[in-house]
Amino acid sequence: MNLLERMTTALKDEIRAAVVRTGFVQSADIPDFVLEVPREKEHGDWATNIAMKLTKIARRNPREIANSIVAEINQEKAAILDIEIAGPGFINFFMDRSFLRGIIEEVKQAKETYGRTDYGQGEKINVEFCSANPTGHLHLGHARGSAVGSSLCNVLDRAGFDVTAEYYINDAGNQMHMMALSIEARYLEVLGKAYTFPEDGYRGREIIDMAKALSEKEGDRLLALPAEERIAYFRAYGKQRLLDKIEADLKSYGVEFAVWFSESSLYESGAIEQTLTELTEKGFTYEKDGALWLKSTAFGDDKDRVLVKQDGSYTYLTPDIAYHRNKFHRGFNRAINIWGADHHGYIARMKAALTALGYAENQLEVIITQMVKLYQGGELVKMSKRTGKAITLVELLEEVGTDAARYFFTMRSADSHLDFDMDLAVSKSNDNPVYYVQYAHARVHSVFKMAEEKGIKPSFEKEVLARLKEEQEYDLLQKLAEFPHEINEAANQLAPYRIIRYLSELAAQFHSYYNAHRVVTDDKLLAAARLALLTSVAQVIRNGLHIVGVQAPEQM
Q: What pTM does this model have?
């Protein structure tokens, strides 16, 4: 429990004790009540609605109840300076904020672990994201989903969950066969042989490059292989080359996966047949028109879904059900998927299938990432200038860098459309949100350098820190103290954008404080105290930026 939690717990305990002392209710019968930070600062540091909650029990109006509670509160015990009753009966508390200085020592001791909590209690969560078909390059949708997914994993980890980042390799469908046929056609083309390019084949540069590499390595040896064996070779070669490229591109983006799960393994292990058997034994399948159907309407889907087609082949849904069943069999309590906007209609049928298998509906949570529009020079950018194709992740990183890309893709809720201004992302101005936060971190380090030149070092002695009395100093300390709670809320809401919002607010408070108060002053003890405060500010900014995969530079 961090400092802020201890103080709010102490205040809540004193409120409960005061309620009991009024005689309105016994301790066990006190209803749940809210203790929150008011929106307006003039309304105090905390406010509670306990008086309104007690009206039915006490059979009095809330202001009368509030007056009785306030009269029984031990202000000294709960570090309260003043109390006021507002509106219909809200009780506002004005605290002795000097306790907030203790957060400096907490941050100093915890360093990069400051903000970690045990909120998740070690619950095992699987987060699957990106999962692009290994048939080409990663594009903007993958870029956004990867930034959100990676940041979410970091949030969950710091909130005390046992989280696994997973990439699902779609390597068993027709798209892989089409990729193999495309490589074969390009291979024949490079060798000067007659070829027919498949109508739905992949025409990207990567397919041509692989064919050229194969011709240089193998010559025309592959032509002597039986057709089936040759296609299998192209398939395995293409899959591995493209997966290696995807993994390398994601690593340069700060995204790594603990598990790369192959769809093919579901076929090889018999997991799909086992899943179908289990659904059938539970009575949730039926045969119609030569196909096997899932009774998904029984679980909220808008229509029943085909699992096995008339020709005996599986629909896309069937191995996906087996895959999610596999996640829970591996011991995960929750599965979180990050899908593109085109998968929105897929959620109901997947939840229906899992409910039919006996899992709770909330064990699968799906985050939908909406579309991204790129702008440069005020114009919408649709195609790469280099290739005339869709913009790839690598091309975007070449233009704006990893920090800006990760920050911009994560700073909005994933389910909102995003206009990505490439000019803004590379600008060195306070209008650039990532620059604004990074500059706050660099600015702190410039102050450290200035202080070092004057022979002043931060001091963490309580007597020295007692010199921190300015309202803006208390506001900064309060913000630093809120960081663990913000991580918990981001984890609870599956909303990593909350971390960026927090960082923006912290940076704004720091810049405002710095502009209003000299840190390196002639009063060396005051300067030492303010340097200690800035040490904490820098640490928390750094910790927050690392959660969203962004660097914290010491100079800009």
A: 0.92
